[in-house]
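Quick start: read one record
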Amino acid sequence: VGSYVCQAWRRLELRFHLRPAPRVAALVCLGIYGNFLANRHLPDARWALLGVVAAAFARSEVTFSAGGPRRRMPILLSFALIGVFIWLAENLATLLGAWRYPDQRHGWRPVYLHKLTSWWLLVIVSIVLVAELRHGVHQRLRVGVQRALEQDARGGQLATHPPHQDMRIENDQLAASHRSSATGS
């Protein structure tokens, strides 16, 4: 699910708007993950967790572009739709025999509906983790670029091209030097 979220984020140019504070999102994810681990020993709290998710993400939206204009969708709807599509894919996979659950040994039957809520919760954890990781990476990049610009400004040199271009220039110079030494000129 995480790799799907990363691919979707890149291909659909996803942007999260009005997301909950990182601490709130982390607590929601910890609650969901804790429920996955403890539901054999403690009462299953998935419906309560879905209520907490609804409260935490009620105002959140995602914007995306599928090759056309940017569109907007409530994040809760996207969580639900992704979970439904995964559940449908799970049903198709079991129908085609990719695997079987114990209750499908004597013939195919649809995957239990309670698995749908499991998928919803897993999707929420996956999307929140990817969003927080991407946000953290972007924050570190912004800080790094700002520091580099400040350092260049203090040294009297302003960066006029991106750092990766420096490597390309050095590689071109090195290749030209190598060619000239190989030809003897």
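Residues 164-171 have pLDDT under 50 and may be disordered.
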